[in-house]
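Slide 14.
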Amino acid sequence: MTTRLQAAIERFPIAGHFTIARGSRTEAVVVSVRLERDGHVGRGECVPYTRYNETPEATLAAIEALAPSIADSLTRAGLQRALPPGAARNALDCAFWDLEAKIAGTSVAALAGVSVLERIETAFTVSLGTPEAMAEDAAKVRRMPLLKIKLGAPGDAARLTAVRRAAPDARLIVDANEGWQAADLPDLLKACQDCGVELVEQPLPASADSALSDIARPIPICADESVHALDGLENLVGRYDAINIKLDKTGGLTEALALARRARELSLSIMVGCMVSTSLSMLPARLLAPYANWIDLDGPLLLAKDRAGGLTYENGVIDGRRSPLWG
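Slide 15: predicted structure.
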């Protein structure tokens, strides 16, 4: 039976604004994949990221170049060898999982041997801005159980203090997006500690994170840009206390599950993260929730409109029931 591939670049406007240390965006640009075989359809989505030298056009081209191999019985296992970890492989890997489950008449969770949590508490992102603007944004969502604060620019201690005052009861995690310097870490980590922050994500550039081995960490530090897939994971032990697993980095659910299991063996805590994207990206990632200490799957909440049939969010909690969109 022939498997037919369709792929396209899609754009979803962001609600309000989304700003991190590397810049601002007004839309989420994704590449979507559709695999069809014998009347069954599997879907997937990825977000090409310029930080990793990916573009939507190049990602789409890499996916479409595999159309002949997919038609000629390329499997999900074969896909792992055909493409490296990254956005292109993610969209295809998730589409293969979806297709396999539909052909088998079961769920992806059952095929993968994982449990789907009924309620998944997710972080909600507060974009980088002035202390006043961030405090205003935090006050609007102060009843969310977990806020992820984007930092990575001069004046971060003031931003953090302003957010904590605006949302006194929320749990806080911080993402510096490689924006801090090693010399400033003691003071910034102390500011985080004073504000009750429970995790600091990627404080230093990935190229300079060896300095973390020699810095006292009053708060767990999580690797994001420093970790992609299984390769090199052991090198992070001693520098980081946790890793952020994103399917767009691992190249899909297949390697993400293997990465989560290996991280647990290495006593690394786990965050499950996402790019700004639709529920079609969140649904595969939520299968990692049983492994995670922190979950950051708020992508659809940052969009003006999600895909039809997407996940249901209420007060920072994802309804874990099966969605018709994927899985």
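Speaker note: DSSP finds eleven helices and 14 strands in the chain.
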